[in-house]
Write a structure and sequence with these properties.
Helix content is 18%, strand content 45%. By secondary structure, the protein is an alpha+beta fold. Strand 3 and strand 4 form a beta hairpin. It is globular.
Length: 71
């Protein structure tokens, strides 16, 4: 499974938002997000992040998709 990873600009937290099992679909989702045309996976280039450590809200950027084998 490829997991989309985001990093918050405000607090610096890195987190996993969603995933896709197919390599080609993952690449298409990331390209679509970067071009402003998200596909069915609804992958976004930016997300709102609730920063629990500083009690605020930040903007998180899509930084990549990492493969994690199923357990």
């Amino acid at each position: 499974m490829y997991h989309f990873t985001y990093k918050c600009r405000l607090c610096g937290a890195t987190y996993v938002s969603a995933g896709c099992s197919d390599r080609t679909q993952t690449a298409k989702a990331m390209i679509g997000a970067a071009q402003g045309y998200p596909d069915k996976s609804h992958t976004r280039l930016h997300e709102v992040h609730c920063c629990k450590t500083i009690q605020g809200y930040g903007i998180a950027d899509l930084i990549g998709a990492k493969f994690t084998p199923d357990k």
